[in-house]
Structure formats: structure tokens, C-alpha cells
């Protein structure tokens, strides 16, 4: 019986490889499964998508669970596209399989490579068909590329469910939900909307406040980056009219991510185009696949304020910490950041909120992994990507507390809220829309305007630059990217430069998604931050074989 199934899988292999070679010939270039999967110009990708369909089918056979394939290049320009796989619990693909993905993408002999995977993992015992979900963003190239992935998976005998245009977090939710046997609700986009909106409404009703609360008003502007987030937010907004009043911008009338969206707002530190300037009104931007979120507003002095992932992390960690204390439960909450977190945020979280903070290298998987070490782990990158995860221990403690007669009414109420937050939050991956409703819930509960939130602490001015070099891999780092190891002498130079800047901090790292070295700097004033970044960029250019003119 076992051998028979193995033989049939191997029979699929020849055929699947041959069909792929014919229809999706390899683009002559070396590709790498990076921190966010493959990301390239769309026309280079068809064979990659087909092969990632094959890989998803095998991954599903290995895990005996549904796997996801998401076609997107997130915040990148519309001409780019990409693909990433999502593992059974909605987490990022396991690193060992990133390597397998890279090898499969580059091999000239697909059939032999597939056979090797089948043999290495002993894929002869599965009596269930592989199951693969495929989702795509709104890029014009996404439909064709998604079809290539579907073909790849089907040609290896997988059952494929094409869920069409969805945000990345919806794809992750659907995969996790299908593998959680009903615990998360239906494994569909509808199931996602229902779970999150129902938790949101219940939290609002529990608070027993009106639509408005002190300085909190339910109105805000939403910048959809001309991507998938626009349409999905419109659906939430329709379900939640009683509680939020959203004005939608960049809903698809303009170009995806062009002068708008979370990445633009964060990097340019400027309002997205298309959104009118209304003093002191909350604005929210998401990125092209709606897994990142940034808030912003302009004050009465015409000064632009950015409320990034750090501000969201502090708001969320602070609020959940209050609920944990009120519940009296033995739950340890911690926050995970990267070196990009503004120094003021780290100080505020550890000194004022008294929440333990960990720092890890850039990339969601590092944050997610570290957050799992806490009972409740809050993680956010400054760029607006993040979420909260509740451990089994925390979930069970909260669940038991709901019915525990020995607790006070107030303790049970706090536990109930924690439980609802656990449903409102998309725990599988950072989710702009779930994060948005999370922030709105907390601001409403506190009665805060966006300025009240912003005033919790003041960001140090920061600047990011990039330097093109001959080979970015000559720069290597340690201590969660805060110190650089090679090239020799660069860290000493950075230390010497930083010493001249009050409240100065700077680090450099090779990008995981672009062929550049990134420079981050913060200092006491805007001018000093800009100058510090420039001086460090010059040092990188000098010592790491910079190409082009010196910064
Ligand atoms: C990817 C990462 C993101 C990180 C960014 C850094 C995921 C899903 N995404 O987009 O977390 O902030 O890369 O880019 O892990 P960089 O290495 O080019 O600076
Ligand atoms: Mg994204």
C-alpha cells in the first residue's frame, strides 16, 4: 500500500516537470527565497510560480495539512510580483524549506529534484491528497502567476482552492483555520470577516461606551494604497457602520503603492497623495497586500506626525498589560522589536510600561519566533508589520478564568476582554485590518484622540538611507543587527561618528529584499539625524566597496 502511493506520486513527477518546462521555461537568472519569498519583476516569475505550486503540494504532503501560496509583491511597485508559501498554522514557511524552494527554483532538472524531496521526506505514507490554497493581490500580473501556481500544485495531484484576490493575512488565516478543525471558524474570507468583526463588536458592547468617548471620534481616513486592502476595508466598514465611520481613499483609482500606502508614508514621513489634509484627523495607510499599517495626522501647526509600528506596539502592549493585571492571572507579557524601533519607544516600554522588551533581527519570522517565548507576545516592526500571539498557556488560563467563581466580577470581565482580543487579533501574521480594529478599540476605550496617543512619548528624529555596494554580503552583523562584524573597521568608524551626536544611534545591515546596504540613524534633532545617516553612509561606501558617487 505504502509503496503503491509512492509510485503514483513519482509518476506525477515526470509529467509535472515536463509540462512545467514546456509551458513555463526557466528565466535565465539565479533566484532566492528571501525574507518574504521570491520578489522580482513579474515577467521573470512564471516558472517560479509553477515550481512553488509543485513545492506547496509536496509541503502539504509532508505536513499532512493544507498549505498556502500567496502571489504578491506587497509594497513594491506594481511591475514587480512575488510569491511566498504559508505553513499549516498560518506561519511563514520553515527556513529549511526556503532553501529547498531556492534550489527548486534554480534547478535545470525539476523531475530529479522533486524525486529527491519525495525520497528525503519518505512521502510514501500519505493517503490524503495534498491541499493547497492560492491567493493573489490586485496586480495585473497576479492572475496569470496564480494560475501557474495552481497548475503546478494540481499537476502533482493536489486539491487546490483558489481564493482569488485576498490580503496576505486573509490567506494565512484561511490556511490556519482549515488546519484548526473549526476552532477559528470557517476557512474562508467570510469566516475571517465574521470572526474579527464579531470580536470587535463584542468588545465595543462590553465597554458600554457610546460611539464616541471623550477625545475619541469614530471618523478616520483610510488610504488603501490602491491595493487589496481598499476593497477588504470597505467590507469591514459596511459590517461595522455602527462603530466606525471610514472615508476611503486610494481605492484603485490610482497606481498601486505609488505615492501612497504604508511604506510610502513611513519612508517619506509624509501624507499619502489623494488623502485631504484635515487637521488632527486620524489617517491610516496600509500596504499593497494589507499586512502593514501606519497611522498619521497633521497638527494645527501643519506638522506631520507618523504613528508607526512602535507606537502601535506600545499602545497595544500597554493596554493588554492593564487587562492582564486587572485579571490577576499569571500571564507574562513581552514585546519584541527590531533595531529599527525608535529609541524612545524602547525606553517608554521598558521604563514606563514596565514591559520586558526583546530585540531580534529584521524579518517577521524572527519576531514571531521570539514572541512565542512569552505567554502573550506582542511584536511589531517599526514599518507597521506586527501582531500579538497568545500561548496555549495564556489561552487556557483566560478560558478557565471566564467561569471561575473564585474570581471577582472585575477579574472575570478583564479575562473576557482578553479572550475577545485574542479573537480580534489575527494571530497568524501581521494584519493591517485586524490591527486597525485593535487600535480603534483601544483608543475608544481610553477616550484618546490620535494626538493623545502620539503624546505618550516623543520619537527621536530618524533617517534611513541606502548605499549601493559591489556585494552587499560583505556587510555582516551581530547582536540583532545592531553591530556590524565585517568589513573590518566599519563598526569602529560608526562608533566614532555616533559619539559626536547627542542621543545618536546608528546601525547598518545588508537588505534582505534589495541589493543595497541599509543605514539607520537617529539623533536629538532632524538635522542631526540626517547628518548622522549621511556620515555613516559615507563610511559604508568607503569600507564596503560602494558603487556610484559617495553619499
Ligand atoms: C520583508 C519582511 C519584513 C522586513 C523587510 C525588510 C516578511 C514577511 N517581510 O519585507 O518583515 O521588514 O523585509 O526589508 O518577513 P529589507 O531587508 O530590504 O530591509
Ligand atoms: Mg506587505
Write the layout of secondary structure elements.
Layout: H1 2-23, E1 38-41, H2 46-63, E2 67-71, E3 80-86, H3 95-106, H4 110-120, E4 131-136, H5 142-155, E5 159-165, H6 168-179, H7 189-207, E6 219-223, H8 228-239, E7 245-249, H9 261-268, E8 283-286, E9 293-298, E10 304-307, H10 309-327, E11 333-337, H11 343-352, E12 357-359, H12 364-371, E13 376-380, E14 386-390, H13 392-402, H14 409-424, H15 432-446, H16 450-454, E15 462-467, E16 476-478, E17 483-486, H17 490-498, E18 505-510, E19 517-522, H18 526-543
Parallel strand pairs: 2-4, 4-5, 6-7, 6-8, 11-12, 11-13
Antiparallel strand pairs: 1-3, 2-3, 8-9, 9-10, 13-14, 15-19, 16-17, 18-19
This protein binds 2-acetamido-2-deoxy-6-O-phosphono-alpha-D-glucopyranose and magnesium ion (MG).
